[in-house]
Each structure stands twice: as C-alpha cells, then as structure tokens.
Amino acid sequence: MRAATVSRFGGPEAVEIREVPVPVPGPGQVRVKVAAAALNPVDAAMRAGAFGSAGERIGLGWDVAGTVESVGPGVSWSPGERVIGLATGHRTPLGTHAEYTVLDADAIAAAPTTVDDTHAGALPLNALSAAQALDMAALKPGQSLLVTGAAGGVGAHSVELAHHRGLKVTALASARDEQFLRARGADHFLPRDEPLPSATFDGVIDAALLGDTALAPVRDGGTYIGVWPGQEPAPERGVRIDALDVRADGAQLAELSQLVDQGVLLARVTETFPLADAAAAHARLAKGGLRGRLVIVP
User: Fold this and answer.
1) Cβ atoms 81, 110 nearer than 8 A
2) 12, 68, 183, 266: which is deepest, by most CB within 10 A?
3) Nearest Cα residue to 43 out of 282, 265, 283
4) Is residue 1 within 8 Å of residue 18, measured between CB atoms?
5) Residues 183-221: pLDDT tens digits?
6) What is the CATH number of domain 126-243?
C-alpha cells in the first residue's frame, strides 16, 4: 500500500509516497481503510523535523475517517463500520496519510452521519484539541473566555464548544471572520490588529500562539491554555498557565461526532488532494490563509 512519510527533514519536497506493508492490527486494535485524512500544522512540524531524528522514517497524518477493515483480538468494532479516529504519536513509521492505518480501538468513534468522509476526516484532531483545552480551562457557565486564532481549526471549534457549554465567548481573528464567528457562537469579536483589553477575561485559549500578548487580557488569577507545549508564557499575576498535549479519546470523540450531527460543530474543508499529491498539499498549507482544512484522499 502507499503511505506519505519523511526520512529527511525540510520543506514540502521532503514528503515521500512509499510502498509499505499493509499494517496488521494487534490485540485491541483496528485496521481502518482510509477514506480521508486532514493535513494539520503538526504534520508540517513533523516534516520539518520538530519531533524526529535524521534518517528516521516517520509516517505523516493524525486525523482519519474511513471504514473498519479488520480487527485484532478483544475488539468490539466490526468490519464495515464507518469511523473517525486520532492517531497520536510523533515518531511512528505509519500515520493516517496512507491507504490503511492501524489505531487502538479506544481511539476511534462512529463517524457523524450528516457529513461525508472528507469533512469527517477534518474533525478529530481539531475538535479533540478544543474540547480538551476547554476541559483544562475548567471555566463555569457564565464565565468569560477569549479565543485567539478563532477562525482556525482549533480556534473555531473552541468557540463553538465554549458557547455550547454556556461560556461568554470573545473571538480574536481577522475582521473578515467576524460574521462567521458570531454565527458559530461568539458573543463578542475583537479584530486581531487592534489592541487587546487588559485583565478582562476569566480565561484564554491561545490557539494563535500569541504568548504574552494573549496572557495580558486574562484577569489576575485567571487561566491561560496554550495549544503547543513549550510555547506558553511565564506565569504572572497568579494566572494558571497550562498547555495542551492532545490525546486520543474515542469516548470524547463520539460525543463530538454527535455534536456535528446536532449542528454544534462545523467541519470545514477548503481543498482535497490525492495521496500522490501530498507534497503539494504541504506546499498549500505553507502558504497560509486557510479557512478550513486541507484533506488527503487516498
């Protein structure tokens, strides 16, 4: 089968499509026939060498939507079931940008019934990141949350889920995104090129990686949640600082899948690329300006 991998780090040209053995599910695992798999910034970081060593072959892709093809011992999933899942791990030889992938059975969930595989394949990483960041923030209904990078994948789902949980949400993004974000649940909107208020919000999810700039609007004793471990600012004013390390969670993913069907979450796709053109997809991601995920379709 074909899979997108890297063995030398660099730009989009480092992505290789290679023939690799079809993976065999072990105990507690499922093999998924991949229908769609989003391309995320973490894939670009892996390609550039953020997590590996020179000469080490690394598989690309974390998100997946597809069909259960076979199962290992002790698994209740059945072949033919349509699923979504998250394959975490920074240095594995096979990711989800492939014709088949193997995941732990507790890392997958039934796919949403109201969207196609392409859109379902854009959901797991960003939606789980948003949900787990909100869990870490531990704000109560009625408290105020600022979301930076609110028009991006993690940011937009953070706005949607925070609104669904009863928080008062302020979205920080480009002015062109205001109408979209208000429609997705933002109570207030701040253009990203204007000064931010000081010590105003109970918490912030810093999806834009603004660091100190995103910390300043948090009230004394509030909460700052970053989405890239190691990039968070130093603590000050009693603000609790934490950073998300997203984990696969099939039970939570099942809840998020249902929220797609209920219209709470919107999976956005900008463009699809065949697996053979994965390097071109990486090049498009590097240009930026996306309002939705790029999705690899084997």
Assistant:
1) yes
2) 68
3) 282
4) no
5) 999 999 999 999 999 999 999 999 999 999 999 999 999
6) 3.40.50.720
* Strands 144-148 vs 168-173: parallel, antiparallel or unpaired: parallel
* Tokens found for residue 224: 């700052």
Render pLDDT for 124-176 as a digit per residue (tens, 0 to 9): 999 999 999 999 999 999 999 999 999 999 999 999 999 999 999 999 999 99
Q: Which residues contact 80 (CB under 8 A, 6 or more apart)?
A: 67, 68
Architecture of the domain made up of 2-123+267-297: Alpha-Beta Complex (3.90)
For residue 82, the 8-state DSSP code is E
**Do the two domains 2-123+267-297 and 126-243 of this chain adopt the same fold?**
no
Domain boundaries, the chain: 2-123+267-297, 126-243
Two structure tokens written together for 156:
């937009």
Tell me the pTM: 0.96
* Distance between CA atoms of residues 223 and 205, nearest Å: 9
Sort strands 108-110 and 144-148 into parallel, antiparallel or unpaired.
unpaired
Q: Considering only residues 7 and 296, tell me which one the structure prediction assigns the higher pLDDT.
A: 296
Can you list the alpha helix ranges (DSSP code H) found in 138-249? Answer: 153-164, 178-183, 212-215
